[in-house]
Amino acid sequence: MDDRLLLDARARVLADLTARQLATAAAVSALDEACASREWWAEQWPQGAEYVAGLVAQDVQDALLSVAGRWPLCLDCSDGPVHSLYIQPDLGGPDPVWVCEESGEVAAALGFLSRT
């Protein structure tokens, strides 16, 4: 398996964690664990390379739920309850994007979340 695949996934998720000021030790540990897990997965299914980055993001999102709460939160909707973004398409690729769970609007491509 090409290491660049996981390095790219790690960099993109880390950029989003940093943008939302959640690049804590716990979050980076969750990211590293997700990358290690998906490395095995990618070795078993090489044709699934285009899904790895989105799946890593989903894994980190799931891991952070119990530790830090929902991540990333939608910052675009000002009405209604606090809600999250999720990766679309569901399998994480190709070209994963963060989508608002309330409006269904694309917030950003994976790796390009903004602070505000």
Write a structural description.
Helix content is 47%, strand content 10%. Helix 1 crosses helix 3. The protein has a three-stranded antiparallel sheet, with helices on one face. It has three helices and three strands, in the order αααβββ. By secondary structure, it is mainly alpha-helical. The protein has one domain.
Short characterization:
Helix content is 47%, strand content 10%. The chain has 116 residues and is mostly helical. It has a 3-stranded antiparallel β-sheet, with helices on one face.
Distance between the termini: 36 Å
β-strand amount? 5-15%
| Overall average residue pLDDT | 93
Side by side, the strands of the main sheet go 1-2-3
> How many helix segments?
3
Largest sheet: 3 strands, antiparallel
| Count of individual beta strands | 3
What is the number of domains?
1
Unreliable spans are none
Class from helix and strand fractions: mainly alpha
SSE diagram, text form:
Blueprint: H1 3-19, H2 25-44, H3 52-68, E1 85-88, E2 97-100, E3 106-109
Antiparallel strand pairs: 1-2, 2-3
Helix pairs in contact: 1-2, 1-3, 2-3
